[in-house]
Amino acid sequence: MLAVITLIKLYTCCFNQYKIKILIDWLFMEWDELKTPEEREIMQRYAETGRRYSLGYSLYCFITGFLFICLSLIPPILDVALPLNESRPVLPAYPGHYFVDEREYFTYTFLHAIVAWEIAVTGIVAHDCMLLTYIEHVCSILTLAGLRFERLMRKRNDHVNALYSHAGPSDVHRKEITFSVCTHRKALKFAQLIEDTFSLTLAIQIVINTIMISITLLQITQQNAGILIMVRYVLFVLSQLIHLFCLSFEGQKLIDHSLQTRDKIYNSPWYKMSAQSQKMLMFVMEKALNPIFLSACKIYIFSIENFTTVVQTSMSYFTVLATLE
């Protein structure tokens, strides 16, 4: 299943390389359009957060995959440290058939498994970290839009005063609102492009995760499973849950940031603006009532609440399978 998920993610990047290029170019363009040090600080904070998340996620995936394979070294080590009258059974690095003697060619199959798994994990990490970076960027744009709405009536610096010295207060408000609305629309378009690029992959992944969690839990409860195999299954289930939780956490973060826009508009001194400017803000607030979300083909929305739903569904399937066993 790891190979299937890896191929799906790689083919997603391959078939959507044009959209991914647009996302990357758009990301750099947003950095070039920053106006103040405060805005750059916000973008840098979210970029640093995305970097930390990506680094932690990458380390976890590589270390977990390596430990999963290295469990097959325990029987040979025990044969040397605590020998028995006969050699312990060989634990393959992963379920597979090489059509050779497993004990004689254990070293070769083990090295092949390490290389193959690390390559597969690299594909998964590259896809997920790229998606995580894009979501963090959307959150930073939404934060910028909210910041610009909040400071509509703040004291302007000398540069802005000189720029608008010939314009009335209403003209100034309309120009600032227009600029903030453009920033908000860019975030909406960026999020929609992310949805179009990764939606199908996420839909297939959520189905596979739900099924595999149920099947793996069933294998753990089987009485004939050895302790090392059970440890492997537990690691596999935890990896699936953490993988799904990371996506759900980022999806929840995207929803929260999109809903905060209307709150920041409300907290701005809108009552000091002209009636026309207030009407413009009302349209923005109405648009912000609908949250931005990361979904799997519009069927499943990634959020903390839905994450618990997937876990409950997997447990229900596991209960049914255990009853039929």
**Strand adjacency order, main sheet:** 1-2
Q: Uncertain spans, ≥5 residues at pLDDT below 50?
A: 155-167
Biggest sheet architecture: 2 strands, antiparallel
Order of helices and strands: HHHHHHHHHEEH
Could you give a quick summary of the protein structure above?
The protein has helices at 2-15, 17-32, 37-70, 74-81, 106-150, 158-163, 169-221, 227-267, 275-288, 304-324, and strands at 295-296, 300-301.
How would you portray this structure in words?
- With 325 residues, this protein is an all-alpha fold.
- Helix content is 78%, strand content 1%.
- It contains ten helices and two strands, in the order H-H-H-H-H-H-H-H-H-E-E-H.
- It has helices spanning 2-15, 17-32, 37-70, 74-81, 106-150, 158-163, 169-221, 227-267, 275-288, 304-324; strands at 295-296, 300-301.
- A two-stranded antiparallel ribbon has the order 1-2.
- Strand 1 and strand 2 form a beta hairpin.
- The radius of gyration is 26 Å and the shape is elongated.
- The two termini are 22 Å apart.
- 25% of the residues are buried.
- Mean pLDDT is 82; it is low at 155-167.
